[in-house]
Structures are given as structure tokens and as C-alpha cells.
Automatic annotation (TrEMBL):
It holds the Pfam family Phage_GPD. It comes from the Bacteria. PANTHER family: FELS-2 PROPHAGE PROTEIN. This is Phage protein D. It comes from Chromobacterium alticapitis.
Amino acid sequence: MEAPMSAARQDVPAPAFELSYNGKSITADIALYALNISYTDHLSGESDELEVELEDSDGRWLNAWYPDKGATLGFKLGYRGQTLVDVGGFDVDEVEYSAPPSVVRIRALATGVQNPLRTKQGRAYEKKTLQELAQQIAGHHGMKLEGKIESVLIDRLTQYHETDLAFLQRVAGNYGYICKVMDNNRKLVFWKRGSLLNEAGVMTFGLGDLISWRARDQLSQVPSAVEVSYHDPKTRQLLTARVGADAKAPGGKASSADVVKLTRKSGGKGQAEQQAKAEMEKRQLARTSLSITVDGAPQLAAGRNVELSGIGKLSGRYLIERACHRLSRQGGYLCELDLKRAAPAEKAL
């Protein structure tokens, strides 16, 4: 069953959702009580989350319907008359109740507190490629590893009281990769950040399509160069690999005068250069950011690109780093997107 929610904007179909609790559909039971539902999709670093806000004038959520922590929620969203998009499963993490008026808020995480991936631990790894490291961690948690990972042999890695996921995201980020747990903790997916930036946009928005927007352009975020110092075991010397600002990146060669200096364990000059390049890429990507609100669309997911036009020199292709899908009685279905510019428009519109 699909539960419709009234839309404040009349030029789009009525939004709809489906919600399940421990595998059983509860859509029909809660449809009349639902005030707001938000699903937040993060590209990396944070667990995806689902928040359901319901009115409770008769007190049922304090009694028989009180949700159990650790219970699972499943969520689908979209529009009536269309196939709803399944965004995965979530573990109930927090229940908040307030009155008057009586309202219950249920917050659930895609990688819940009971998931072993969130257990902090210390461990050392010797002579493993990034692919082998990812495969070992994925296999340990019963997940399938997906994504192309270039051959990077790492002599030694130490996990310092980190969760497996935080550790893997840190190491992957040092070499220009993004990784994320998906599909109800069944997949561990890797992307090369540079490859994501080159993909075509899934949607195009003009200035008139933006319900609201805010931009930030910071030259200070982009250093003139990144230097990674590493120990050469053959010469027993501390050497440095240097990468300058990339003229083809969104910010071009424009940069501050700063030089970012990092000291990391590395298997040699090639790996140090790879790490320096990844750090520069991340910092150049951070230069221009936008936050926009648009009509809701399930295909607006973290890791995908959108095209923006009609905003002068800020026009171009942008990577979605965070997508918050909000369904409400008053506002209908809206998307709030946090974006980083992947490529400028060839000609400002």
C-alpha cells in the first residue's frame, strides 16, 4: 500500500511512501499520523538515517506501539502511480517523545549501533593491497565488495581503536577512494572520487527550479601544493612527494599561497604522490559548495551529479555529497542537497 502525503506544490504528482517495521508493512497503520519523514543519504563518513515524526493524540505510541530499539525499518519513497524506490533498511536507534502536542520521533540508522562494523578495535595489517584490505573487511562482515580498486600495495597499516568502517574510509580516502555500506549491510561499495566527478548529471536545474539556494566559494580551501613526506627504507631518508594545483580541476590553478604538508606511511614515491594527488583533489573539490532545495526526486542520491545552469559563474556540474529527502503534510516532497562543484560550465549561463 502506498501512503500519499499532500503536496504544497500543485505542479508535481502526489508524493507517496511505504514503511515497514521488522519486515511487516505498517504504512496503512501510520498514514494518518505521519507528520514528517526524512531520509538522509550521505556519500561517506556518516551512516544514512531515517527519521519518522508522528502525532500521538491518543497515546498509542507510549504503550502498545512504542518502538523497540534495534527494531528494523524499511522505507520506500516516490510518487503515486510510479514505482517507489527502496532506499534500504534501518535500525531504530533513538525514540524521542514531546508534548503538547504529543509527538513521537523515531530515528533509525542504516548502519545501526548493533552492527559489528561500528565496534571500535585495534589491529595491524601487513603488506596488503587496498583491494585485499577491503575484501578482508567485507568478508569478515559477510558483505560483497563492489567497485574497481586500482592496485595499491600498502606495507603496513594500523587500525587505532577505530571501527572497521571508519578505518577503511580513512585509508580509502588517502588514495582518492570513497567507500560506503549499502543494500541493508550486504554490500561494501568503492568509488574512485575522480570517476564520480566525470559522470553525467542525473538531472538539470535552472535558477527557476531552485526553491532556495546558498553558495560558498572559498579560495583559501585550495592550497598551491600538497607535500607528502615519507620514509625511504632503502636510503633511510625522509623524502617528499609534491603535487601542485590542477588547472583542469573545478577551481583551476587559482589557489592560496598555502602548502599543505603531510607525513604518512607510504610504500615509496609512487604511493606518496598518489596520496598527495588525492588530498589535492579533495581540497579543490571543497572550494565551491552549494546547498539547494528542489522538488523531490528519488534519483537524487549521494554520489550522483546534477547540472546547474542560470547562476552565472557558479553554473556547472555538481557532485551530491548529501541528499535529504523530506516528506511532510505541509510541504509535500522536497530534496535538500549539499553539493560540491565537479566541473564548471563551459560557458557561464
